[in-house]
Amino acid sequence: GRMRKQGVGIVSISGGACEMISDRARDAGVSVPSFTPETQAQLRATVSDIGQTHNPLDLTGGAMRDPPMWERVLNIIARDPQIGLTVCNFDIPVAPLPHWQTAWDHMVKGLKAADPPGPILTSYIQGFTEHGKRFIQEMDIPFVISGIATGMDAIGRATRWSEKLARALPAPLRLDNTDGAATGPRSAALR
Description:
The protein is an alpha/beta fold. It contains eight helices and seven strands. It has helices at 15-28, 37-46, 62-65, 68-79, 101-113, 130-139, 148-168, 187-190; strands spanning 7-12, 57-58, 83-89, 120-121, 144-145, 174-175, 182-183. Strands 2-1-3-4-5 form a five-stranded parallel beta sheet. It has a two-stranded antiparallel sheet with strand order 6-7. The two termini are 32 Å apart.
């Protein structure tokens, strides 16, 4: 569906990936705004050991020691009034990694709770193994975008499409409070 807000909030455990994502987002025309002061305060309370609240947000490997942090952070970012899409940068496993399962459970819950549900953005263009395909299906991951460069390009196109769609929507009709008559730019057609 259409993004109602153009800002994209991104979470990763890699500072290097955050830098690459920022560069590619700028090149693709993707808005990656600073989080509001309220969002930053909530993030500081959640990721206090890490201490930074930039967008893209680098959770560092600390998120693997505290897997519920993924879900908490994704939920906070999705509520930021500037953010229309929440993205999690992580690679789809090519083989079973049972010690990461809890982190994945929280990532997917956080992405699915956003409106619209957010994608997993892999760091590189990734061909999915049979295990990876099954993993995506069994985890019910809403969307997977393969590769930072192609992913930011795709998100840029989606935001521009959403902007065009929003401009093309007709103005809503309003009912006059006194007699129930429609008012507004399209009301003459209804009379």
